[in-house]
């Protein structure tokens, strides 16, 4: 091909074109690598953050050997031995992050979520009031060593425990008694935010003659740890030891039953909720109670009501009613207003506690109610009715729980 020398002066040479191509490819590769590096940094940074959050959990020292020794009335002692080193223990993480959204989007999504949980839907577990509440089950082992006069109790694990905390989970641990002795007890470690905990802890009742062992009742009580107030009972199991073959270790799965100290009616409380989205507030009206449990020796109580506003795991504000002297069917009719921004409503819980006033000792808890969109069926129904009917006082009776 013939090329005019004059015309060729205005065209780039072959070397120039080659250099330009190399520069273009290098810039493209740099841009891709930078994007990959930024993505890696975000992933590694998130992983590093999660590792920091996990490092300081209460069970981070579970590999250490611990012993708890108490003297029994028989002259023996009880020892809590730590899990065998190397034995697998399972911990679950419930930490989740949610994307941020505008206030209007949050209101719409929150309202739709509440309305979707309508009575009769598969998410509403309160449709069959006659069905017994599922309290979960516990696995444990029991055996007796005749040569060493030692009763061994192993607390292994539990499954399907109910959520006792407003966050939709529990912090369970187990107390071990040999009834009728209730003064001396042993207990497992607390498993944070876990409805299927694994303890794998062994308890030795040493120097305990067999003839006295068979006169005892093994009593296991599962509780939800609460650092702010009294621990909430979840369920219990009791087995007379004279009904077991203690010559060898036997493992049992037992359904948890309502705790004896929480059995029987504690009474009911009538209250109303009124949600005002424009004012960002909830009005709680404590109306009245009926058939409250008698907490005093005279067969009566001096009840009052505490109302706590909780956000996530923090107590924000507390209010309380007046004390009604010697009354098991008090009428309060007291209203309390709490300021709650719409964007915080999803993580908000209102804890209502009916107390018995005692001048000489610590005030007794008669019963509690947890109101949120993650509570029990009755509480969730009241909460979503409040959301579905803004600016209207929605009243409902609630059974007090231990």
From TrEMBL:
GO terms for molecular function: calcium ion binding; calcium-dependent phospholipid binding; calmodulin binding; clathrin binding; phosphatidylserine binding; SNARE binding. The chain crosses the membrane at residues 16-40. Residues 51-105 are annotated as: Disordered. CDD domains: C2A_Synaptotagmin-7, C2B_Synaptotagmin-7. Coiled coil: none annotated. PROSITE patterns: C2. Its main location: membrane. This is Synaptotagmin-7. It comes from Eublepharis macularius.
């Amino acid at each position: 091909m013939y090329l005019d020398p004059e015309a060729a002066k205005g065209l780039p040479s072959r070397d120039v074109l080659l250099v330009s191509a190399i520069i273009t490819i290098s810039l493209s590769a740099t841009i891709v690598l930078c994007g990959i590096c930024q993505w890696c940094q975000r992933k590694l940074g998130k992983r590093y953050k999660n590792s920091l959050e996990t490092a300081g959990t209460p069970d981070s020292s579970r590999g250490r050997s611990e012993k708890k020794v108490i003297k029994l009335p028989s002259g023996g002692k009880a020892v809590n031995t730590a899990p065998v080193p190397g034995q697998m223990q399972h911990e679950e993480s419930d930490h989740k992050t949610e994307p941020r959204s505008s206030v209007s989007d949050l209101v719409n999504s929150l309202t739709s979520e509440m309305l979707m949980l309508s009575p009769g839907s598969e998410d509403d577990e309160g449709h069959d009031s006659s069905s017994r509440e599922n309290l979960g089950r516990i696995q444990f082992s029991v055996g007796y060593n005749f040569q060493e006069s030692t009763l061994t109790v192993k607390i292994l694990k539990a499954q399907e425990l109910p959520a006792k905390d407003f966050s939709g989970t529990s912090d369970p641990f187990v107390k071990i008694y040999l009834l009728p002795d209730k003064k001396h007890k042993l207990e497992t470690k607390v498993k944070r935010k876990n409805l299927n905990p694994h303890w794998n802890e062994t308890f030795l009742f040493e120097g305990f003659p067999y003839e006295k062992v068979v006169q005892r009742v093994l009593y296991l009580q599962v509780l939800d740890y609460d650092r702010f107030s009294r621990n909430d009972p979840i369920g219990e199991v009791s087995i007379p030891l004279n009904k077991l073959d203690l010559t060898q270790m036997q493992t049992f799965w037992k359904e948890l039953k309502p705790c004896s100290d929480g059995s029987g009616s504690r009474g009911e409380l009538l209250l109303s909720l009124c949600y005002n989205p424009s004012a960002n507030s909830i009005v709680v009206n404590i109306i009245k109670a009926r058939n409250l449990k008698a907490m005093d020796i005279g067969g009566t109580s001096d009840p009052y009501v505490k109302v706590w506003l909780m956000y996530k795991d923090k107590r924000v504000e507390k209010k309380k009613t007046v004390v009604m002297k010697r009354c098991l069917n008090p009428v309060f009719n007291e209203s309390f207003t709490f300021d709650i921004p719409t964007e915080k409503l999803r993580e908000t819980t209102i804890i209502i506690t009916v107390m018995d006033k005692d001048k000489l000792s610590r005030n007794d808890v008669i019963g509690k109610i947890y109101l949120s969109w993650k509570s029990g069926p009755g509480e969730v129904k009241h909460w979503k009715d409040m959301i579905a009917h803004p600016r209207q006082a929605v009243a409902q009776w609630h059974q007090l729980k231990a």
